[in-house]
């Protein structure tokens, strides 16, 4: 069955935003994201930002690829 164009546009939009945010985590807004990590998190702030940024890039790229849409859509929603 053919998917509605709005679903495709939504998937591409969310994928692009996730990838952009992930790149931001690793580059131009890294310090701002580090400042948002709560003190009670038992991991180095930079490690948390690196891991979350990497996860966002992977999820964004997966959504943009269009492969395994249901799996990656649910994974992005859970993240």
Terminal CA distance reads: 28 Å
Rg, alpha carbons:
14 Å
Q: Tell me, what's the shape? A: elongated
Determine the strand fraction and express it as a percent band: under 5%
Sketch the topology as an H/E string, one letter per element.
HHHH
Residue windows where pLDDT falls under 50 for at least 5 positions: none
Number of DSSP helices?
A: 4
Q: Averaging pLDDT over every residue, what do you get? A: 95
> Which class best fits the helix and strand makeup?
mainly alpha
How would you characterize the largest beta sheet? none
Total DSSP E strands: 0
Roughly what percent helix?
over 70%
Tell me about this structure:
The chain has 79 residues and is mainly alpha-helical. Helix 1 runs antiparallel to helix 3 (45-65) and helix 3 (45-65) runs antiparallel to helix 4. Helix content is 75%, strand content 0%. The protein has helices at 5-26, 30-35, 45-65, 69-78. The protein is built from four helices and no strands. The longest helix is centred in the first third of the chain and has 22 residues, at 5-26.
Short description:
With 79 residues, the chain is an all-alpha fold. It is built from four helices and no strands.
Please name the defining characteristics of this protein:
79 residues, mainly alpha
